Amino acid sequence: MSPSRQKVILQRLVGGEVVAKQGGSRTIDSSHGLLLTISTDGRRLYAFVSGGGGDTTSLLSIRAHGLKPGRVGFAVKGRPRGPASGAVQDIEIVQ
Q1: Is residue 53 part of a domain?
Q2: Residues in Cβ contact with 89 at an 8 Å cutoff, skipping those fewer than 6 apart
Q3: What are the distances in angstroms from CA 75 to CA 8, 86, 89?
């Protein structure tokens, strides 16, 4: 998530290389919490964002071909050469 750019970016890395990437615009207010949910149907990864007002928006989807168990990570980034404002408070993985 990039509050300074008002953007959420979803990337899939394999062996340290980006194999799929998509970004979507979203109003991000670092003083309010957001819930990012990522799900899959085996073919694609889908990202949904829920804002403070309870609205849930389907934001992004990327190809998930050959998806295997692995790691997941989240980051809050600012503008290039600039600080980020915000933090990842919780990560919950549900199967």
Answers
A1: yes
A2: 33
A3: 10, 10, 11
